[in-house]
Amino acid sequence: MLSTNTSDVPEGKIPAQTSRTSENEKIPPKLIGAIIAVGSLAFIGILTETVMTVLFPELMRELNVGTSTVQWITTVYLLVVSATMPISSYLKRKFPLKGIFVAAVILAITGSVIMIFGHSFPVLILARVIQGIGSGVATPLMINIILEQSPRSKIGRLMGVGSLVITVAPAIGPTVGGAVSSVLPWRAIFVIVIPVMVIALIIGLCCIEQKEPTQEAHLNPLQFLAVVLGLCGLVMALNQAGVAAGAAVSGQSYTHALAFAVASLIVGVLSLLFFGYSSKRSFSPLIRLGILRDPVVLLHLLAYTILPIVGIGFGYVITNLAQLSLGTNAFLAGALVLPGALIGAFFAPVGGMLYDRFGPTRPILTAFAVAIVGPVLLLVFSMRLTPELLAGFYFIFGLSYALGFSNIMTSALSQIPHQFAPDGNAIFNTMLQFGGAAGTALFSTILTIAQAGSGDEGTPGFAHATAVGGAWTFATMIVICVIAYVALVCAFLIRAKRVEAVG
Predict the structure, then answer these.
(1) What separation in angstroms does the CA of 89 have from each of 84, 162, 286, 355, 366?
(2) With pLDDT > 90 as the criterion, what percentage of the chain qualifies?
(3) Between 8 and 490, residue with greater pLDDT
(4) 235 burial class (0-12, 13-18, 19+ CB within 10 angstroms)?
(5) CA-CA distances (angstroms) from residue 334 to 172, 183, 359, 385, 388?
(6) pTM of the prediction?
(7) Local structure of 324: helix, strand or coil
(8) What whole-number percentage of the chain has pLDDT above 70?
(9) Nearest CA to 13 among 502, 485, 500, 495?
(10) CA 463, 388, 312 angle in degrees (round to 5)?
(11) For 24-71, where are the alpha helices, taking DSSP H only?
(12) Contact between 94 and 217 (Cβ < 8 Å)
């Protein structure tokens, strides 16, 4: 059986290798440059994922497609990212870090160029597939560099910087999309990001270093196919279940969408079961799943999977409530998310510093005890919300969420032997992506059900129904946060007992 425990220390902190490890450790300038380069690429990938949702009405007019078709611009991208992230462990073991980075940049630039010049829906879908592969490689690569090359006493704050990239991009995506498209053609977004990616490429070529040798890792095609089918099946099941629910409450035919959702769920679950079975018997598995035998790691993963349902789903909920219930325009609706998202994200490194100083337990549990206050207040005031209250209560959640979220992954990986850290990184990043997809699907379905039969958009009845859907959504968020909090408390109690047993 794979051992998943490092030598425990009080509060579960990442153990110092020697007494020389201290706050005086310096972060190498090249490491800073590498994080900036790869982080910029990851940022742009996540940004363009959320930018497109604001552009749907314009894309529908330009490409002459309906709502159910245009959403594939985002869904396909999400599927490709979800399918690519699991192979990050294999790529890290097999290929040099710099080579992986260059390939990701080339894919991202190629996809952006096709988005600029493509004028048909299938061509744009192809572009999103290419971009999705680049983005799916970039985010785990950034985390792998941080885990492998950071001084032990600084890993918390550098993971916080990585979290800043992951949380800022989806938060400002709708606002950026709305602002750019209001003054320029929507393709200008992809023109703007290309020079940024070129600069990131130059910095990365100068700063990314190979600290560990590559290995003779082998890619099992059956395992790769299984994990792709598994993740794509689950994401498609969520997406189509939402479509079916929306059609059902609207009195439209939902049979096709429901059948597709059930079939996708069956394919997804069976594929993942096969992947797990195959991995146990493989000499060189795509992802070494033995780390999940540790209940501490598994409980951390549960929290890390379901919290993004709330964290990322909030962007969808606030922008829709603001427009459909409070009557704001699209730009103001997107701007309501910015204070909590931006300020919270820039405080993510502070959360990492608290982790480095106090270990994971107090920073994580305190942050999420405060974070849950946000959805509680939103539920209490759900039928009397104003744009100011919506932004203010989200600010409470966004700031606290950013302070604690990245520390969950750091805490979990501290319990995994160093050689298995890329596998943990791949698993956690994949589930983060899945959680975000689940949040949008879940909350859009709740709002759709609440709005059914309430009249046309813009009427008082529709606005009231949307507010009711918001109340249901906030109640769901509270339940999710409580489940995650209990999982984390259990993880820390188990770890504390281990420390006691060691003596």
Answers:
(1) 10, 18, 7, 25, 32
(2) 24
(3) 490
(4) buried
(5) 8, 16, 35, 16, 13
(6) 0.77
(7) helix
(8) 89
(9) 495
(10) 75
(11) 29-54, 56-63, 67-70
(12) yes
- Alpha-carbon gap, residue 242 to 247, rounded angstroms: 9
Span 141-161, mean pLDDT?
78
Q: CA dist 212 to 11, 28, 92, Å?
A: 29, 16, 10
Q: Is 455 in contact with 118 (CB distance < 8 Å)?
A: no
In this structure, what DSSP letter does residue 173 have? Answer: H
At 17, the pLDDT band (50, 70, 90 cuts) reads very low
Q: Which residues of 236-249 are buried (b: 16+ CB within 10 A; e: fewer)?
A: bbbbbbbbbbbbbb
Give the length of the chain.
503
Is there a contact between 236 and 269 (Cβ–Cβ < 8 Å)?
no
In single-letter form, the type of residue at position 119 comes to H
Closest CA to 175 of 356, 4, 337: 337
Number of CB atoms found within 10 A of residue 418's CB:
11
Residue (of 341, 391, 399) closest to 370 by Cα position: 399
Q: What is the amino acid identity at position 251? A: G
Q: List pLDDT tens digits, range 325-361.
A: 888 876 777 778 778 777 777 777 788 888 888 888 9
Q: Are 441 and 239 in contact (CB under 8 A)?
A: yes
pLDDT band at 396 (very low <50, low <70, confident <90, very high): very high
Contacts with 472 (C-beta within 8 Å, 6 or more apart), sequence order: 446, 450
